[in-house]
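Dear Dr. H.,

I hope your travels went smoothly. While you were away I took the liberty of generating a structure for the chain from your last submission, since the lab meeting agenda had it listed for discussion. I wanted you to have the full record in hand beforehand rather than looking at slides cold. The sequence, exactly as received, is reproduced here:
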Amino acid sequence: MTQRRFTGWHMAGILVAMFATIIAVNIVMAYFAVSTFGGTVVDNSYVATRNYNRWLADARTQEALGWRVRATLDPDRRVRITASSPDGPIFGVINAVASHPLGREPERAIAFRHAEDGRYVAAGTLPAGRWTLKITVTSGKNIARFTEDIPA
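The corresponding predicted structure, in token form, is as follows:
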């Protein structure tokens, strides 16, 4: 059996294959990065930093209230929220905005009706998929905001 020589053509083939692999992987990764990111986190970072101290103060005020919110999904895909304080159930108005974590679905406003002590049920249903709820609870002069994830 004769031994083949390693020539410049072999080296060129190896280099072309290596760079083709690297470029192909980069194109695939770039495609997935662009196609799965739904948008920006904040529209204007300068305005967001100006509001940061107010957001911290609001968070401290909300923490002092001691309110807790838990969101679940019933078999009919209606969102159910249980709202409680250290003194018992919260009676007030609850609204939420459901957004798809990757921004693929449009945001949906959800109105809730009071079901029983501290429990509220959504008027409509959510489509299948993973959703993030931005919940606003208002009782008297107190307002609290929560974020809850609803799994698929």
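Two observations you may find useful: The domain at 67-150 is CATH 2.60.40.10 (Immunoglobulin-like). The mean pLDDT is 88.

With kind regards,
E. W.
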